[in-house]
Automatic annotation (TrEMBL):
Residues 31-142 form the SGNH hydrolase-type esterase domain. Residues 177-199 are annotated as: Disordered. Pfam families: Lipase_GDSL_2. InterPro entries: SGNH_hydro, SGNH_hydro_sf. This is SGNH hydrolase-type esterase domain-containing protein. Residues 188-199 have a biased composition (Polar residues).
């Protein structure tokens, strides 16, 4: 998958998501580390935008934040979503919602490439099955995103789930036996079911106040940042390799 600008246009990259993106933007502006800079200490092209709102789920984002896509008209969207969805819906439902969002970005908003950042585990998981559900969501999104030529899943390797070697081998054998694994099959069924339901009804999501305290319609685009062309080429090469 190749991503390139047309004519003299400067490609635009939008980092879109929940509180992780909001805090990243805030930390960069606050220079939390001497190596941190609002422009990542990179210069050149393309333009970089950030938009993140605390508590965002995929349904909320689709209802309240798509105007950001319209205003910026990005060529590439780096999407960090899914963590908050796990508190409200099963992983296969969250995976299907993410698939629909990615397809909408490509088909309706002419986004050339979508990079989906997978959900990271939590260090403290006592009394919670969050990490187990996050694993299922990540497996699900890989299955439903794989057929979309303009999209890839990105794993934050430093935070990826670790599994004992024996358990990992057993899991691989189980997945080979079942082709995709039960959660992936379930996710495919959920995706098909959602597509059918979408043709019959409209789901209305109630708007809620966000921790940012800023009405979504008044959230301004982030100040343009600059990204080094060599890094862009590296991203494109990674996309092609995937």
């Amino acid at each position: 998958m190749a991503v390139s600008s047309t004519g003299t246009d400067i490609p635009k990259v939008l980092i879109l998501g929940h509180s992780f993106v909001r805090r990243l933007r805030s930390d960069l502006h606050a220079r939390f580390d001497e190596r941190a800079a609002k422009n990542f200490d990179l210069h050149g092209t393309p333009e970089i935008f950030m938009h993140g709102v605390g508590g965002r789920t995929v349904p909320k984002l689709r209802k309240m934040d798509m105007g950001v896509i319209t205003r910026i008209s990005p060529d590439i969207v780096i999407l960090d979503m899914g963590t908050n969805d796990l508190a409200l819906a099963p992983p296969e439902v969250g995976g299907s919602d993410i698939e629909e969002l990615v397809r909408s970005l490509v088909a309706e908003y002419s986004v050339r490439a979508v990079v989906l950042c997978q959900v990271t585990p939590r260090a403290t998981n006592k009394g919670s099955n969050f990490n187990e559900r996050a694993k299922l969501l990540n497996q699900c999104t890989r299955v439903v995103i794989e057929p979309i030529e303009q999209a890839i899943c990105w794993t934050h390797r430093a935070f990826s789930f670790r599994m004992p070697p024996k358990k990992l081998q057993a899991r691989k054998r189980a997945l080979r036996t079942t082709d995709e694994g039960p959660s992936a099959q379930c996710c495919r069924r959920q995706s098909t079911r959602n597509s059918t339901l979408a043709s019959r009804s409209t789901v209305v999501v109630a708007a809620e106040d966000d921790s940012s305290g800023i009405p979504p319609s008044n959230v301004p685009p982030t100040t343009v940042q600059q990204l080094d062309p060599e890094l862009v080429q590296s991203i494109v090469s990674t996309v092609a390799a995937e």
